[in-house]
Every structure is written in C-alpha cells, then in structure tokens.
Amino acid sequence: MEALWVPVWALLFGLGLPVARAVQGPGQQPSLVRYTEAREHTLRGTVTLPGTVEAATVSLVASTVEGLVVELAGREGRRVREGDVLARLRTVSKELELEAQRAALQEAEARLKLAEANLHRARELYESGVISRQQFDDAQSEFSAWQGRTNMLKATVARLEDELERMTIRAPFAGVVVRERTEVGQWVNAGSPVVEMVALDTVEIRVEVPERYYARLRTGSRVEVTLDALPGTRLSGRLLTVIPAADPQARTFPVKVMVENRSGRIGAGMLAQVSFAMDETTAATIVPKDAIVRQGPRTVIYRVNGDNTVEPVPVETGAAAGVWIAVQGPIRPGDKVVTRGNERLQPGQPVRAVPLEYELP
Asked: What is the CATH number of domain 28-43+283-355?
C-alpha cells in the first residue's frame, strides 16, 4: 500500500496545536508609517508623586423633620441632579393639621374684616358723640385681637407648609448616592441621616508632598494627572490648596489638586500620579506622545533604521509639554520615531516612512 505523505504543519493545525507564523521574506511589502524626528528641548523640571482621589463634596443628607419613611428613591449608586427626590415621609397627619389651621385662618380673617368694619362705624359714632369712649375702645380692642389671631395663624400655616415641603427630602447638589442610611417603614427624627452623597463632577486628589518641594508649589498652577485605573489617559488639573501643616513623622505636607470629572470615569479612592512643575529647567530628548507604545509593563518607541526597517527601543517617559514628552533611553535627537502605524509593528519589519511634523512646545 502506498504511504500517504502529509505536511507537518497540516498535522499540527489539525490537532489544534499552535503553529509559528513564518517570517516574511525579502518580498514582503513595506508597511506605510509616519515618523517624526526626536528633538532636544528645554523642559521645566517636574516631580511626580502618588495621590488618592477624594470626592470634592461629601454630604450626609439628613431629614429636618420627623416622620415615617414611605419612599426611598435615593438608592446606592444612583446619580442624582440637584433637587431630585431622595426620600419621602408620610404626610397625612401634617396635611390634616395644615387643613385645620387654614380653616381657622379663614375664620379669623372673616372676623378681622368684620371687626375692622365695626371699628370704622364706632369711630364715626364716637366722633359724633353717639357712643362713649369705652365703647369705641372695645371696638378697637376687638379689631386688634383678631388682627393678632390672624397673624399668628398665618405664621402657623406657613410653618406647616414648610414642614410639609421638607417631608420630601431632596438632593442638595448633583452627585451620587453612596450609602443608604434609612429604609422604607423606618421612623426618622429631625437630624436623622437618610443617605450619604458625594459630588463627582470635580474630584480632589490628596497628595503628600515632601518638605523639600513645599516652597516651590504655587496655588492655582496646572498639574498633570494619570490614574492607574485609566492607563494611557493624561488629565489636566489645578493645584487647589497647600495645607501648611506637615505630618510630624513623615515631614510631608498635604496638597489638594482639583480635576474635572464630568464624564464620571474617576471614582473616589482611585490611585493617581500627579506631576508638579518645578522652577528649574533641563535639556531633554523629546518625542511626540503618539510615538509611545505600551507593551505590558514596558514602554517602547519604534525607531526607523537606515535600511528602512524598524526596531523597538525601550524608554522611560518623563515630563510632558503639549503633545511632546521627554524620554530617557537609547533615543537620540534626530532619530526617526514612528508616530503613526506603530501599534502592529514587529522588530525588523520593513516600512515606507513618511515624515509627520508636530508643533514644538
């Protein structure tokens, strides 16, 4: 029987085993990429320190009146706008009390109107000598009594209307409910917490700054922020405040940085890296940020060689300036670094490189 010859690669493929991709030969078509020359540029020195994201506003929203909770709309994780309902208390008793006081006010106003008319007639009769001074004083006293009664009932009605309004507990600001402090069917007293809220449209990052940098910090200056939870994202922040009280053990000063968070991607408790600009300047090799490629734990830049092939060069990134960033490693000013099409490049791959200019910082 004649033997059947099967290629090894086909056998491996049929068994589901991995097959190494063949290296493309001399006939491989070059990949089109864009490159920019690395430059030497003077940058302001920076120091990067770790920090923790905190909510700019944290509020324990409490009830200002007592009552039975009949609705809890502010559940954990819910985003609310200012004025949205968080909880409602039972209002039946308060509504009945308000109705009774409004009826009493209506009666008092009617009696006040009658007393006012009687006072006008009594004044005319007194001036005509028909009634005595005592009778006129009685009419005036009656009018004053109903006027006082009316004013008191108006104040009572206004207080009950205010209490009734406050039995609907609303969000004092736009934010997120992070904890429920009551439940439907529970009785709350005035001052009892209902929910805990945080505002996250802007967040603060607390950084402990060593005392050697304390005098160089300027309130209001811009800082750059990166977050471990958002790799590759660089945010602009502002130095909000420097607290002039050092930790006696670590000799660090608390600093707060404010960052916009309208997208809601930043959560309280996240770890951050904050880069502060210092006064001194240094010469550095800079490349466009588009040249940076993250490969797991390492950072590389693909450099175009003289034979129009590329090689990955490991670097460490430093201070940023606009669309440029300082790098440390084998990259030198004048090197051609790939800034477009570098995501799928392989070492030694032939390329057709076209220049791409970036505006210098």
From this structure: 2.40.420.20
CB burial readout 4-28, b (16+ within 10 A) else e: eeeeeeeeeeeeeeeeeeeeeeeee
Q: Which CATH architecture has domain 91-166?
A: Orthogonal Bundle (1.10)
Q: Give me the pLDDT at residue 70, please.
A: 97
CATH hierarchy code of domain 48-56+199-279? 2.40.30.170
**Cβ atoms of 311 and 348 closer than 8 Å:** yes
Q: What is the pLDDT of residues 44-72, one digit of tens each?
A: 777 888 999 999 889 999 999 999 999 99
Which of 163, 224, 222, 173 minimizes the C-alpha distance to 196? 173
Whether residue 313 contacts residue 302, with contact meaning beta carbons closer than 8 Å, is answered with yes
* Per-residue model confidence as pLDDT tens digits over 310-339: 999 999 887 777 788 889 899 999 999 999
CB of 167 within 8 A of CB of 65?
yes
Would you say 54 and 261 are in contact if contact means Cβ atoms under 8 Å apart?
no
d(CA 352, CA 40): 25
User: Using the 8-state DSSP alphabet, how is residue 65 labeled?
Assistant: S
Phi-psi region of 276 (alpha: psi -120 to 50; beta: other; left: phi over 0): beta
Instruction: Please give the model's pTM, rounded to 2 decimal places.
Output: 0.59
Q: Where are the domains of the chain?
A: 28-43+283-355, 48-56+199-279, 91-166
Element (H, E) at 144: helix 133-166
**Burial call 300-320: b when 16+ CB within 10 Å, e when fewer:** bbbbbeeeebbbbbebeebbb
Q: At which residue do the structure tokens 């109705």 appear? A: 99
Which residue positions in the chain have pLDDT lower than 50? 1-24
Cβ(258)–Cβ(215) below 8 Å: no
Cβ atoms of residues 259 and 266 within 8 Å:
yes
